[in-house]
Amino acid sequence: MEEKLLQEEDQEAEKNSPLRTREDLSSPPAAKPFAEFDVNLLKGKNTFGKDEKLKSKKIIDQLFKEGKSVSTNGFTLVYLVKQRSTFYPAQAGFSVPKRHFKHAVDRNRVKRLMREAYRLNKTPFYENLAERKEQMAIMFVYKGKELPKHEAVTKAILHCLKKIFKT
């Protein structure tokens, strides 16, 4: 009798719970296709959400094997034009090698500066990709030996993004 009451309470608690169940978590939410992407949705919204971040080990490996690169002032941009199942035209990753910056604090600062520069200046890049109906995986790598200033990072990121379309 008690078991039956406990089971009924559990079922009722699941119905009223705002949390997702294991079944809900196992199936990812349906992503919007890239064909529906509109640059006007991003106007005034300088965000860099999780769908825009390059996290797939498989894609990153393929990026460094098959991708093309563009360099300027200690920054290298490796890119690969590849149709993805994401809504955004590009997924970006940022890397700073341990060779030149031994302390994680310094590496994280440079990555933070690069992410911020990309976040604020990605709209024209997205517009170009949307016009061409292309999707890209990109990785920014800083190979300099000194901590860069914010202005230098922004200038280099913009220069790299513009160079992609010139080649």
Question: Can you characterise this structure?
Answer:
- The protein has helices spanning 2-16, 22-26, 57-66, 104-121, 123-132, 150-166; strands at 68-72, 75-81, 90-95, 136-142.
- It is of the alpha+beta class.
- It has one domain (34-166): Ribosomal Protein S5, domain 2.
- Strands 1-2-4-3 form a 4-stranded mixed beta sheet, with helices on both faces.
- Helix 4 packs across helix 6.
- The chain is globular.
The Rg value, from CA coordinates, equals 21 Å
Low-confidence segments, given as residue ranges, are 19-30
Q: What's the overall average pLDDT, rounded?
A: 83
How are the strands ordered across the major sheet? 1-2-4-3
What characteristics describe this protein?
globular, 167 residues, Ribosomal Protein S5, domain 2, alpha+beta, 4-stranded mixed β-sheet
Summary, kept brief:
The chain has six helices and four strands.
Note the topology.
Blueprint (H helix, E strand, L loop, with lengths): L1 H15 L5 H5 L30 H10 L1 E5 L2 E7 L8 E6 L8 H18 L1 H10 L3 E7 L7 H17 L1
Parallel strand pairs: 3-4
Antiparallel strand pairs: 1-2, 2-4
Helix pairs in contact: 4-6
